[in-house]
From TrEMBL:
Any one GO molecular function term: metal ion binding
Entry protein name: Type-5 uracil-DNA glycosylase
SUPFAM superfamilies attached to this UniProt entry: Uracil-DNA glycosylase-like
Keyword set, alphabetical order: 4Fe-4S, DNA damage, DNA repair, Hydrolase, Iron, Iron-sulfur, Metal-binding
Any single biological process term in GO: base-excision repair
Pfam families registered for this protein in UniProt: UDG
Source organism superkingdom: Bacteria
C-alpha cells in the first residue's frame, strides 16, 4: 500500500473500503484506521487514563468494527463507540449502560444469544442482525465532527453494500445515525423521498432502489443512552417494539410481541 493511502491518511477509508470483498476483510481494515487525529488521540488517551473500575483492563483502543453475521437481513446503526465502553471492550455497544439496555432488548426479542455483552470474546452471538455505526472511534463527549463522520462514511457504505442481498431493514438508533445514514443510502442507489424522511422514534420509511424490485425498510428509534433511558424517553418496551418491528420487516424470526412478559 502506498503512503498516500496509509492508515494515517485522511483518504484511507475511501481508498481502502471500496476494494474489500468481504466483511471479515472490512472489519480488519477498520481496526487499523488512524485517519482522524483527534479521535485517535482521544481513544488512546482513554486507554491510558482509565476509570478506576477498569484499571485492570487492557483497552481495545482502536476503531471498533461492526458485529454480527455477514448475511444479516437486519442492521442496527448507532452513533460511535463510548470511550470506556466499546473502546475498552472492542465490541459495539458493549461495556456501557446503553449497551446493557440494547443487548437485554435484543435477547428478549430473540436476536441475541444472551442478555448481556461483556467483551468481544465472551461468546455472545447475534441472530439475523448486525450492529454498526457511522463513526468507528470513540469521540470526545460522544460528538464526532462532521468531518470525522464524513471521513468514516466509506466504511459504513461498504458494510451495507456487503450485507446485500440479504439486507431488508435498518433500525437507526438516534438522530445522528439517521442523518449520517441517509447520504450513504442515496449514494447506494436508494431513492429518498422529498422532503427527506425526518428522524423520530417509530419513524418508518420504505425505500425503493433504482434497480427494480429492491426495497429497504428504514426505522427510527431513540438511542438507548443513559439520559434517554433514565428519563423514560426510551423504555425497554419501546426499544423491544422497534426491534421486533424491524425483525418482522426483515423476515428474521422474533419471539417477542407487545405485551409479552419480560424473561
Amino acid at each position: 500500500m502506498s503512503s498516500a493511502t496509509g492508515p494515517e491518511e485522511p483518504d484511507f477509508p475511501a481508498a481502502t473500503a471500496a476494494r474489500l470483498d468481504g466483511l471479515g476483510l472490512l472489519d480488519t481494515a477498520v481496526t487499523t484506521c488512524r485517519a482522524c487525529p483527534r479521535l485517535v488521540a482521544w481513544r488512546e488517551e482513554a486507554a491510558r487514563v482509565r476509570r478506576r473500575a477498569y484499571r485492570d483492563w487492557d483497552y481495545w483502543a482502536r476503531p471498533v468494527p461492526g458485529f454480527g453475521p455477514p448475511d444479516a437481513p437486519l442492521a442496527l446503526v448507532g452513533l460511535a463507540p463510548a470511550a470506556h465502553g466499546a473502546n475498552r471492550t472492542g465490541r459495539m455497544f458493549t461495556g456501557d449502560p446503553a449497551g446493557d439496555v440494547l443487548y437485554a432488548a435484543l435477547h428478549a426479542v430473540g436476536l441475541a444469544s444472551r442478555p448481556t455483552s461483556v467483551h468481544r470474546g465472551d461468546g455472545l452471538e447475534l441472530h439475523g442482525v448486525r450492529i454498526t455505526a457511522p463513526v468507528h472511534c470513540a469521540p470526545p463527549e460522544n460528538r464526532p465532527t462532521p468531518a470525522e463522520r464524513d471521513t468514516c462514511r466509506p466504511w459504513l457504505a461498504r458494510e451495507l453494500t456487503l450485507l446485500q442481498p440479504a439486507l431488508r431493514a435498518v433500525v437507526v438508533l438516534g438522530g445522528f445515525g439517521w442523518q449520517a445514514l441517509l447520504p450513504v443510502l442515496r449514494d447506494a442507489g436508494w431513492e429518498l423521498p422529498r422532503p427527506q424522511p425526518v428522524f423520530g422514534h417509530g419513524a418508518e420509511v420504505t425505500l425503493r432502489h433504482t434497480e427494480p424490485g429492491r426495497e429497504l425498510h428504514l426505522l427510527g428509534c431513540y438511542h438507548p443512552s443513559r439520559r434517554n433511558t433514565f428519563t423514560g424517553r426510551l423504555t425497554p418496551a419501546m426499544l423491544r417494539a422497534v426491534l421486533a418491528r424491524g425483525a418482522g420487516l426483515a423476515g428474521v424470526p422474533c419471539r417477542w410481541r407487545p405485551g409479552t412478559p419480560d424473561t
